[in-house]
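ingest -> fold -> write
write: protein_1
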Amino acid sequence: METISTNQFNAGVYFVEITKSNETAVVKLIVE
């Protein structure tokens, strides 16, 4: 897994929260 900055991680978590109803999008984000 690649190392990411705190800002990128926080943005990713925020995106997951917004799209938590769409599990496919969440999984895609986490995998990428």
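write: protein_2
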Amino acid sequence: MRPILVEEFLKKLEELILNVLDGRTPLEQLPEWIDEERKLLQDPLLEDTDAREKLNQLIDYLKPAKELPKERALKRLTNALGMIERYRSWYFFAKPDPSQAKQLSLDIKSARGVGPRREKLLRKLEINSLKDLVFYFPRDYEDRRRVISLKDLLLGEKVTTRGKISSVEMKDVSGMKIVAAVLADGIHHVLLKWFNQEFVYKQLQALRGKEVYVTGTVKKSMFGGLEIVNPEVELVENSSALEILPVYPLTEGVSQKEFRRIVRQNIDCVASVQDELPLELTERRKLIDLATALYGMHFPKTMHQLEKSRERLAYEELLYLQLAMLLSRYTLDSIGGMAKKIEGKLAQEFLKKLPFQLTNAQKRAHEEIRQDLISARPMSRLLQGDVGCGKTVVAQLTIIDN
């Protein structure tokens, strides 16, 4: 069985609780499911003692529910849903350090880790300020929190696995330098390969016999075994290896590692961002604050934070768009339009000659458009509907009225 993350466990648990409350799943299945899924939990989040204890408290609160009278059991399940939501708010979000806040208007040359060479490369990406850097969002993400054992590797899957570097060698094949190493866990093993990357050989020699995390795509070797080509290797001691990493759209000369390092060194500047949405609105819509959303777009602690970050930014963008449209409409209304006097005689003659009767929806649409034309307010209306629903005849009636 493959390991699961805490956020996956809680999402499944939440769905199961809702199914029990709706009567679709027997309450008796809940503790059995918890016991089975709990064994599969593997998450860097659980290294946090408080997060681990709070999760255990939630589980201990739920497991006896089947022994309680039905009303009390259902009440306990309802309370558990609130506990799950609070747990997410406490442990699923990474936030910027307020002490590192900076004005986003600062030129990119003043950013940490940016020298003349990197400044030139960043400007090629149209990143000229800290604000440009912060709003240069990733195109994808690599979730490296789940460590797959060597025995569970699947062909074609990009994974993070763990083992010891047991052997390292470099060969010259047809003028190409191939560095090969074996990653093993005592029972299973996988071949690691690098092409024309001689510097990797020295790095691997230093890692020989040590526990490492390896990230890459699993392939089938020409000898039938499994191999990972050009993987990333990090010591197990480096806890930052198990995280969600951003993947950016970059230009030649800038690597993902280098760009991530620049963003990581400067991302705390978003702590200076002023949230323009009223607190009442963000609370009602259950939106996270803007600084946390911007941070989460680059280095989300969980996929839940990434989802909530996207939701916050999308909501704000759509809200401003709607406000701009309303302002435009208000401006047009204040200018005023030309009221028309419509008797409808020609339209009535036209309707008599039609070989069919208008539907109620067509009549309603025509009447609404007619009222707009009669009014002194400028009309702003879209006539839409499925193919064959009768939009053309409504438009024709409007032309005749006009």
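write: annotation protein_2
The first helix runs from residue 6 to 21.
The CA atoms of residues 131 and 386 lie 44 Å apart.
pipeline exit 0
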